[in-house]
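Hi C.,

You asked whether I'd gotten around to modeling the 224-residue construct. I have! Everything is below, sequence then structure, no commentary in between.
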Amino acid sequence: MSFMDIFKRSFLEGYASQALSVNSIVVCMLITILLSSYIFILYRLINRKAFYSKNFNISLPAMAILTAAIILTIQSSIIISLGMVGALSIVRFRTAIKDPMDLVFLFWSISIGIVCGAGFAVIAVVASIVLTCGVLVADWLPIAKAPQILLVNSSTFEMEAEITDVIEKYCSLYKVKARNLTKDHLDMAIEVKVKEEALLVSELMGIENIVSASLIAHDGEVTF
């Protein structure tokens, strides 16, 4: 069997229960490396978190390659497959996944390894293309603008009414997220939806006894 025959079979037919040759294993690993490298690059491009985790991104192609190797090993023998299942059943992952998109990329990477290891690389390629288009389109759609956080500091605790009057003037929606009161001090954290940001902060600073006013943008979830 030629190299091209092995390459075509890895894309179209799968390995079924046939014995794997060195060429089949090499082709499977090359395809897995290419697709996992694509996942690595895509994750780096669309990642918007303040702290980019390079280690997590490196783990994505590593996970795909390891998964493909496990699937290839399982196909070679029923005894090995049962032993592998028993060995993997004791593995426990303690790292919490906080971002849902990280979980998507992790599952995507594992799926690539499973599908390529089973010899159906064409499914992995098509699924990667469809998933990429879906993620990019959903990310591009202007569903809603994330709110901003307004931090106001006053030297007296009796200023809340005046602060909210100014906020209502410039903000279409607002919600008090935190209120810290002392005998001679007021701190407020307010989630606001505002267009004229500079005017809002300037008018707040024009109020007597206002010590500071800060408007902070973030990429978090919209609560309005």
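If it helps when you're writing up: Helices lie at 3-12, 22-46, 54-76, 78-88, 100-117, 121-140, 160-170, 197-205.

Thanks,
B.
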